[in-house]
Each structure stands twice: as C-alpha cells, then as structure tokens.
Design a protein that fits this description.
The complex is a heterodimer of chains A (307) and B (142).
Chain A (H helix, E strand, L loop, with lengths): L20 H16 L13 E2 L6 E2 L4 E3 L4 E2 L36 H7 L5 H8 L16 H8 L12 H8 L2 H4 L3 H9 L1 E3 L5 E3 L11 E4 L2 H13 L7 E4 L9 E5 L5 E8 L3 E8 L2 E7 L5 H9 L3
Parallel strand pairs in A: 7-12
Antiparallel strand pairs in A: 1-2, 2-3, 3-4, 5-6, 8-9, 9-10, 10-11, 11-12
Chain B lengths: L5 H9 L1 H5 L3 E4 L2 H10 L16 E4 L6 H9 L9 E6 L6 E5 H6 L1 H5 L5 E5 L4 E5 L4 E5 L2
Classes of the chains: A alpha+beta (307), B alpha+beta (142).
C-alpha cells in the first residue's frame, strides 16, 4: 500500500470532534501519513545508529541515545566519562561513538589504544571498537594471552586486524579493558539488537560463559598494576586493613580498603584459582590471578606488606 | 550491639520486616567463624574445600538467579524451609544473620551480591553453603 499524500492548511483544518465523521477521516489520514513519512534514519552519528520512530532515540549497538538532551539512556559500560550518561563527551559534533560504548577522540579509550602500541587512527578505532578482549568474555580454558587472542577474534566479525601478545598485554593493563563488566557482556549478547535493515534481530549466542570477571597475569607486578588502575579509577584510598578471619591468618591483614569499606582489595590464594588479587567497589568486583605456581607462602609474604 | 557496615545496612533494609517481628536475629559473627574453624579445614582465610572429603561446587553469578542455587542444594539435601541458617561474610558485613532458610532464600541474591566470601551455615546438619569472592559456590559435606 502506498503512502497517502495528505495536504491541508494547518490553520483551517478539521475541528477536533471525535463524533464528527470528518474528524474521523481526517485523523485516520493524518495517522497514515505520519506512518509513511520517509526520513533518513541514520542522521545522528551517521551509519552508527538508527533513529527509533516511536521514541526518537538513536539506537546504537550497546545503548540508546537521546540526541535532544544529549544523554544515553543506560550507563556507560566503559565508564569513560565522569557521568555514565554523558554522550560523546558533550561534544557530539567532533566525537564519534561507534557502538555506544566509547567515544573516539577522547580518553581513556585512546590512551588504552596507545598503550597497546597503536598509532594510526584506523588502528585506534579498531581497538576502541574491539570488545573481544573484555575479561568477561574469557572462556573457561583461557589461561594465557595466547588463548585469549585465539578466542577473541570471532566476537567481532567486522574486525580483521590481529594483535600480537605485547599489544595484548599492554591493552590488558589499561583501565578501559578491565573496567568492562559482566553486565555489559551480558547485555551485548543477550539483549535484542536492531539489525542493519531496521528489523529486530536477536544477538548471536554467547560463545562461552560470560560469568568470568577473572583475568590472568604472568606475575604479581602486572596483576598489581592492573588492580591499582582498576581501584584508582574508582577513587580508592588505602585507609584500613582487611583482616583475616580464620586459623593462623585470623586478625592479620590480607589487603586494604577505604574507611567505609566500599572499595578495596585483598590478596588471596586457593586451590582452584591459585594466587590472586580480589578487588571490589560497591558490588562490582574483579579477580586478577597471577603466576602459575605461586605458593601460599609467597602470598603470605605479600599479605605481610600490609601490616 | 553489633557494628554495622553500609552493606549491613542494605541487608537490614531488605530484612526490615522480618527483623521487626523477630524472624531474623542480628548477632556477632565471631562464634560462627570459630564454628567453621572447628568443623572445616581452613587455609588462607577461607574454607579449603580441596581438603573436604565430600563436597560439590558450581560456578555462580548473580545473573544465574535463585533457581540455580536451589537446584544445586536440593541435589544434596531436602531442607525444611523452617530450619535456621546463619549467614556471615568474611569482610564487608559485620554481623551474622540467623534466619529461617525460607527467608534466606528470599534474600539470597542480596547476600550473594556482596563481594566477599559468604558462608551460609546449617548448624543442625553441620553443612555449609559458601559463595566465594571469585564466584565458586560450594556446598558440603555431602
């Protein structure tokens, strides 16, 4: 059915009167006309988003954006700006956010890309859009960066660039990578996304468990640096000891936290995860495992640093 | 009166009505840590489940929901919902919460959302449900 072409003078239109046959015809025609208006759905931020006809929001891959107020309607999975709802760093004419996760032309995504050794704009953009290295996407058997590299590629089919181990390690130590949370991963894979043709399409199935908020590092120093960055990004101050509760470690420090206890870390060891640093902020948490054969005795020495 | 962290405040808010009518008792946790020390092998500030002869373990995330917890436990015990359980955490909550298991399960995700090692003790059967910081959910002995 083609579009109705409705023409009328606004000032001399049909008076609103639901009982009037003229009003009923007029209102139906107006409704049909509105539905058939063809407009360019890719106006704001170009090809990266489509405007939803009903809400007026721009639908990006990860979030919806209300261009009238310049704010996202969901929190930023990358925590790029001081407010999780700020759009394009309050500079939508110069910054581009390809997926609703991170605006280019701004930090910390760019810093992370540079830390990974990327210099060209194309490489930086590829990195910024690369979701494959989020810790929540680590498969159960990903115990080193080589495995992560292998399994990371299929998650972003548009990405053809490969990354060497040094780049990955540098990227892993950057705040932007470690700040991605399970909720983001889950929403990306389990929620409905708008397909490129405007239809609603289900996201691809999860390739592996999204449950892991655990990362592995070769040694304590690397894990510590990553943990510190994670904590600093959340305003951590070491003000109070975290004390052990059991056996010989009872009453002894195993980490540090803020006075209110809402942000902190603890160094631990168990048979399943080996040596690791647990960090938390509110109810958000992350585990940084390190080394392959780090003993309980070594972890005890590390814990003693906080006496 | 036990101390109270902000995490305790959230828990108490969730349990406000049940605390008010005496269905939940807020206690000092020390004796329950001693109970764990007494009945379970511990190492490096947690139960060393690798030393427990009979236990079960699954990975758990909050998004898995309550059903996963219930189906995990029900594999091993038929628990009357009026049995008392005690919930303690090893850092972020300062109190022990003694409550009916039915009330615990209603609020299990609230307890388990706190980033710490959380222990749910079943004093009458000397069993423990333990969600570790890392997301491993243990139950035993089975």
């Amino acid at each position: 059915m083609g579009c109705l072409k409705l023409s009328y003078d606004q000032g001399e239109g049909v008076e609103e009167n639901p009982t009037s046959i003229f009003w009923q015809v007029y209102s139906k025609r107006e409704s049909a006309s509105k539905k058939c208006i063809e407009y360019y759905r890719y106006g704001f931020q170009g090809e990266f988003s489509m405007e939803d006809m009903e809400t007026g929001w721009n639908s990006f891959e990860l979030r919806n954006y209300d261009s009238e107020i310049g704010r996202w309607n969901a929190v930023d999975p990358y925590r790029q700006y001081w407010s999780p709802y700020v759009g394009m760093g309050n500079n939508p004419t110069n910054n581009v956010d390809p997926d609703g996760g991170c605006a280019t032309g701004d930090t910390p995504c760019i810093e992370a890309a540079k830390a990974a050794g990327f210099t060209s704009q194309a490489d930086i953009n590829a990195f910024v859009n690369l979701d494959a290295y989020a810790p929540g996407m680590l498969p159960d058997n990903a115990v080193n960066l080589d495995n992560i590299l292998q399994v990371g590629q299929p998650l972003n089919t548009s990405l053809t660039k490969t990354f060497d181990q040094a780049q990955l390690e540098a990227a892993y130590e950057s705040a932007v990578v470690i700040s991605i949370t399970y909720e983001f991963i889950k929403s990306q894979f389990q929620n409905e996304n708008h397909g490129s043709d405007g239809t609603i399409a289900m996201s691809p199935p999860m390739p592996f468990s999204p449950a892991k908020t655990i990362k592995w590092f070769k040694d304590y120093n690397r894990a510590r640096n990553a943990a510190i960055k994670w904590l600093e990004a959340r305003g951590f101050k070491a003000q109070k000891s975290v004390l052990g509760k059991f056996g010989t470690i009872k009453g002894k420090p195993i980490g540090m936290k803020t006075l209110d206890g809402k942000i902190g870390f603890r160094i631990e060891h168990d048979a399943r995860h080996g040596a690791h640093i647990n960090v938390w902020s509110g109810k958000e948490k992350m585990t940084f495992e390190f080394g392959e054969n780090v003993t309980e005795a070594t972890v005890t020495k590390l814990q003693n640093l906080f006496k | 009166m036990p101390m109270s962290s902000s995490y305790d405040d959230d828990i108490k808010l969730s349990l406000e009505e049940d605390i008010g009518i005496g269905q939940v008792q807020v206690e000092q946790p020390d004796k329950y840590f001693e109970l764990i020390d007494q009945f379970f092998p511990t190492s490096m500030n947690r139960i060393d489940w690798s030393q427990v002869s009979q236990y079960d373990m699954i990975e758990f995330e909050l998004g898995d929901g309550l059903d996963k917890i219930l189906s995990f436990i029900s594999k091993h015990i038929e628990m009357p919902l009026d049995e008392d359980v005690v919930v303690i955490g090893d850092d972020l909550i300062d109190n022990a919460y003694r409550l009916k298991s039915s009330i615990f399960f209603e609020n299990a995700l609230e307890f388990f959302s706190i980033p710490q090692h959380t222990y749910v003790l079943f004093p009458s059967s000397k069993k423990c449900l333990n969600l570790t910081f890392e997301g491993d959910l243990y139950f035993g002995p089975v």
